[in-house]
Fold:
Amino acid sequence: MPTVADVVAELERRYPPAWAEEWDRVGLVLGEPWAPVRRVLCVVDVVPETVAEALAAGVDMIVAHHPLLLRGVSSVAPTTYKGRIVHQLIKADIALYVAHTNADVAAPGVSDALAARLGLTDLRPLQPSRPGTPAAGSGRGIGRIGRLPEPMNLGELARHAAAVLPATTVGVRAAGDPNRTVRTLAVCGGAGDSFLADATAAGVDAYLTADLRHHPAGEHLATGGPALLDATHWATERPWLDDLAAALRAAPGVETLVSDLDTDPWSVHATSPAADDKEPDREG
Ligand SMILES: [Zn+2]
Structure:
């Protein structure tokens, strides 16, 4: 029977910890390496809802994208939010492993799965890993740039993205001329607003990421940058969980489950009825 160490070995073959950013905290968080693993749950976030899902499914291990413990802690007392999660996992004998920025830069990595959902081809990194760094190598880096299967305008692309990405309450919003034709698209799973300049430099028609903000987005468009599409953080990273699950199923030979719980904090979306009149591009 595969062990935690076997699953870790496969994860570290695909996503070497040395590829992570210096500020990041990846690798085994909880769990005895020699413990047997029959079933693994893949999640974006380790939060009470996904921990409950792991407990209900009787898994032996969780593989998460976001670190549970990114900054230093002096206590994991169960009276604290994260301490309670640590206690629940240890008591249920559930190991926890994190692959974060090392999975972002990998090829295939987080943004490859996002690009695949959108049908992009001829992929290359939006910001290639710098030569001389551990992650330097062919096709590795943050984000991906690719070509859409067929040109579409920005309004159509926003609807296409909303249809092919995991469903969320908020959906996808776009910024720029709705009639602008988009052939080439940059994508970045997670919060990608520090790569706006890279998207402009790459000369793509549009850039899809998450967590875009008013001032950087507005200034980017005003200075002639690509059109923007903003999806939720979870929706841009969830597609990668399928790749992760397939890899663990094939190599260590464990049963893998993928969490479809939308862990994005935004759970309500409302628009004014008057807003319908403001969308010139809306069909039907
Ligand atoms: Zn993220």
Notes: The two ends are 56 Å apart (CA to CA). The chain has a mean pLDDT of 95.
